Amino acid sequence: MPPSGEKLTAMTSTPDRHTVTAAYLGCAAVATYALLKTAWALGSTVGVNDTVLFEEFMRSLGGPLVALWATVGLALLAAAILLSFVAPWGQRIPRRLRASLAWIGAIMAPFGLMSLTLTIVEMIAGHPFLMLAPAIYIAVYVSFTVLGVAFAVTAWRTREPRVALGVATQPVAS
After folding, report:
1. How far apart are CA 75 and CA 147, in angstroms?
2. For residues 101 and 81, is the Cβ–Cβ distance under 8 A?
3. Most exposed residue of 36, 41, 91, 124, measured as fewest CB within 10 angstroms of its CB?
């Protein structure tokens, strides 16, 4: 114990199981999204209702390189950020940088949740989904929501440890 009587919290390099679970769930969500985008980039039309409309949309975003492959790259980056909180190699990256990126990524949760809600409302109202099947929108927005929550959980649970103060914090005069 330190001479002043303080107790320090244990600082370990091993993340707790909740952090690990959140990081892996976020990676699973990212994998779902990345696999869908990769399938489309390789020519699949899974979940596409109107291929002409889909191709026009892809062209309006800059083509498959930007609209599909760039988002796959971002998904892989998101997975790497999440894994940096639970893998030993992540400790070589400054904690504040990882935490900042995770808090920025946490924005995905409300965006995903709002978009998911709107999609469900549109389905209930009977609005047509011209370009993609509703299940695709749901899968993507659930992925965004889970990813955002995973970022928030990992950032929160790995924040800088604080000192737990014990009995005496002031030196005692002798």
Report:
1. 10
2. yes
3. 124
Q: What's the chain look like in SS3? A: CCCCCCCCCCCCCCCCHHHHHHHHHHHHHHHHHHHHHHHHHCCCCCCECCHHHHHHHHHHCCCHHHHHHHHHHHHHHHHHHHHHCCCHHHHHCCHHHHHHHHHHHCCHHHHHHHHHHHHHHHHHHCCCCCCECHHHHHHHHHHHHHHHHHHHHHHHHCCCCCCCCCCCCCCCCC
pTM: predicted TM-score of the whole model, two decimal places:
0.82
Q: Which residue has the higher pLDDT, 161 or 34?
A: 34
Question: Using an 8 Å Cβ cutoff, are 104 and 155 in contact?
Answer: no
Round to whole Å and give the CA distance between 67 and 49: 18
Please give the Cα distance from 148 to 151 (Å, whole number): 5
81 touches 98 (CB < 8 A): yes
Q: Taking all residues of the chain, what is their mean pLDDT, rounded to a whole number? A: 88
What residue segments make up the domains of the chain, in order of their start?
A: 17-157
